[in-house]
Amino acid sequence: MKFSIHLRKYTQFPPRRRVVVTGVGVVSPLGTGSELAWSRLLKGHCGIISLKDEEYSKLPSRVAAVIPVENDTEIAKALSKSNLKLMAPATCIALVATAEALTKADWNPKSDAEKEVTGVALGMGMIDLKDVCETNNALKLGYNKVSPFFVPRILPNMAAGHISIKYGFRGPNHAVSTACATGAHSIGDAFRFIRNGDADVMVCGGAESCISPLAIAGFCRLRALSTSFNDKPEKASRPFDKLRDGFVMGEGAAVVVLEEYEHALRRNAKMYAEILGYGLSGDAAHITSPKEDGSGAILSMSRALHDSNITNNEISYINAHATSTPIGDGIESTAIRTLFKENLKDIMVSSTKGAHGHLLGAAGNLEAVFTILACYHGIVPPTINLDEPIDNLNYVANVPQKWNKTRRIALKNSFGFGGTNATLCISNI
User: Is 180 a known active-site residue?
Assistant: First the structure.
């Protein structure tokens, strides 16, 4: 199998600005708070549950990865009736994740100058279909029954807008919507904003909260969801396993604070990791399936390596997109084996979606947070429910593995419907 990868040659520029991670925030099916979610991930917990409501009873897939709201007063407050009147659920939880990330970054700018160099890049993969259906029903009762906040609630850029407004950030205000690659693209774009001098600090990531009977039905009609584990929801998401039969819808938000290195150094900020590079590509093949030869993923990973100015043999961990679908996981494995054939024995590959499902537009950013924490702590999270691997790659099956490298460099892959691909290159400091 041969691939011709053409990478552009750039003229010499001044040294690029370094970009580091100084804060992370998480709202996920594994819990609220990055430390809690990380701890549960390493312990092999799973946030996937059965959907018990009657409206799901006749659907082929009746499992989902849901944010545990019970006993979580912070999330209950965020999803209050007054907030949901103004904002979509995804926006509400994005604000919670942002608050944690900014607290961990210890970034609370007061001056106009500081606010003007702080931006937001945060998106979502799809809007809340339940809101659309309910508003359409309201319209049937009369024009005045339609909420004046309906359109602002469903705009994909409104989470970024609310974050900017709440904190007064007046740098780039950017929203990405590239299906399941949204979160990774958001972080990558924010990285480039800082590297190019458009901002010194960026609040970035993604949010998704669209689990509903219509959404589940729609993905079921695509034959994309798991349907064989309705009675054992914790076993339903099983990336790289021979029994995988589709992904499990999830919800949540994850936010990363990126910062120019010298800016972070001057204020003595804690640095979790460094973003080294960013690669993008298109499959140009099919609306839902990746190209069979894995060339789209190969291009994305190759461009991230090139952008980072590192070689293949410097990578020792890949956080895979692998969603537990029969087609996608195999193609990603093919891409990894094709690109890294010389040093596969030295690479760990894992997908954390067995623990938290597929968060769609918030998948890449949540998994980027876990990759950042893996770089920071020197431990790689496991691929759970992996009983019969599809091949002999080191998929970090079921238990974490120590990452015994002085310089820990990882790739984070995210792929989306429409053939859109993103790869982030992340390392410890």
Answer: yes
